[in-house]
Amino acid sequence: MRIILNYILVLLYLTLPLCLGVQPPHIVFTLADDLGWNDLGFHNPAVLTPILDKFANEGVIFNNSYVQPMCTPSRSAFLTGYYPFHTGLQHKVIDYWQANYLQANYTILPQYLKKRGYVTHMVGKWHLGFCNWKYVPTRRGFDTFYGYYQGCEGHFNRTVENGYDFRDNDTVVYANGEYSTKLFADRAIQIIENHDPSTPLFLYLPFQNVHFPVEVPKQYEDMYSNIHDTKRRVYSGMASAMDEAFGNITSALERKGLTNNLLLGFSSDNGGALGFGANNLPLRGGKTTIWEGGTRGISFAHSKTLIKKKGYTHNGLMHAVDWFSTFLEAAGIPQPAGIDGVSQWKMWTDGAPSERLEVVHNIDNIANNSAIRDKQYKLILGDPGPGPWEPLPKLDDTDDDIEISDPLPDTLLYDLIEDPGEHNNLADDLPDVVNRLKARLDYYKSTAIPARYPPNTPAGDPANFGGVWGPGWC
Predict the structure, then answer these.
(1) CA distances from 196 to 8, 119, 185, 218, 257 (A)
(2) 43 an active-site residue?
(3) Which of 1, 247, 325, 355 is the most buried (most CB within 10 A)?
(4) Does 412 share its domain with 324?
């Protein structure tokens, strides 16, 4: 009887506001892929991203918003509200030939939002598994999907390894020659133009930019003719192409009249990939590492009406799992029991202190490393990965030298308020802090599940499926 009563109460909680004519906000969540900390204009004016800069500066910029070191773990955190070490996706990414996935027993964000009356759309990169139909976006709460399943592919030819990967819902579509960012923006605009404003909209927009391969139409590359380093010049153009697409999409939202009740979120999924044109200065390291350059995301939230305190940078702690919880609260949905995310709604809207006291960067039993941060200190156990402070390329053809550190001890402690670039290891000086944070990591390790990282298998070879990456092999 109590279970039935609880079910009725939750149902009333979800439906009563709609019955009373109170509509939840439209939500648009944009992810940039492999975007470096120093690769948007509001951190580095040499990067020409005026639209993203405008929305960031008119909203709330999150200065301590953490993500995971790589694509798959971050995307699982954003959509489930669980740390990846609680879903088994904490090690690397789902590989091309790997029968791995976000397990179907996890209810993800669009599935919750649909119960609240949302129409849900996804445009862009999935990278949470596709070897069985039950793991693809159209079976995970998205009404429509336009994009690709794998972790990367050519921006013009939609191909990775020996297979093609691009779909409209479940149907393979061939769209060779057009730049992916343009395709994604056009589809997002089409969705917006066809949307009924009386129904709440959730648009998940994980762009392919600025992930390698480093490719962009020439007009964007030409915006950076002063940069002679080819990768940095093209990469910068990729950021500007993404900015233009973001501007076209937000203009469509304005034309449709959706912006008076719109919550807009933007985040990177991990740090920039060193060696592919990205830059994370003044942070250390990059993608794949648990240094700040791999795990501190460049992010902001924007709303004309819902965010009351705006036009500033908030220094409170936030993690990818908190986007899930904050979007749920914005939509009027109760927080699920047992998740790792905490709602930062008051932090976003009123500038209140963060609800989060600590962030777990990762616990990886295969790589045998882990890291945790509280308000001030960050403890790293094991090898955090390559840790150079990679300089920006010069404006001429001379080579830059990357600063390489000496071999590191197994225990590292940094004061991130005084030393955000992680230069000065304090582990020997502050043993009490080390022991305190080790105890917290031990607690989280006691709750972790082993990383699920099966070997590659030829079963998924696109040659078995007409040259296309697709479901049906696990």
Answers:
(1) 28, 9, 19, 37, 10
(2) no
(3) 325
(4) no
C-alpha angle with apex 241: 252 to 200, nearest 5 degrees?
Answer: 30
Q: Quote the pLDDT of residue 407.
A: 82
Q: Are strands 26-32 and 262-268 parallel, antiparallel or unpaired?
A: parallel
Domain that holds residue 393: 364-447
Task: Return the pLDDT at 406.
Answer: 64
State yes or no: is 302 an active-site residue: no
Q: Which of 49-63, 183-197, 297-311, 385-399 has the lowest mean pLDDT?
A: 385-399
Helix axes 71-80, 320-331, angle to 10 degrees: 30
Same domain, 311 and 440: no
Query: Average pLDDT over the chain, rounded to whole?
Result: 94
Overall domain count for the chain: 2
Please check whether residues 298 and 383 belong to one and the same domain: no
**Is pLDDT of 56 > 50?**
yes
Q: Are residues 174 and 61 in the same domain?
A: yes
Whole-angstrom CA distances from 441 to 23, 299, 369, 374, 380 are 41, 26, 11, 11, 10
Rounded Cα distance, 470 and 447, in Å: 34
User: Positive or negative, the Cα torsion across 182, 213, 34, 75?
Assistant: positive
What pLDDT does residue 400 have?
47
Q: Which two three-digit tokens encode residue 331?
A: 């939509």
Catalytic residue among 26, 43, 91, 127: 127
User: What confidence category does residue 8 fall into, taking pLDDT thresholds of 50, 70 and 90?
Assistant: very low
Q: Locate 194 and state its tokens.
A: 């066809």
**Annotated active-site residue in 43, 71, 195, 319:** 71
Beta bridge partners of 415: 377
* pLDDT attached to residue 39: 98
Within this chain, do residues 335 and 380 fall inside the same structural domain, yes or no? no
Q: Is the pLDDT of residue 135 over 70?
A: yes
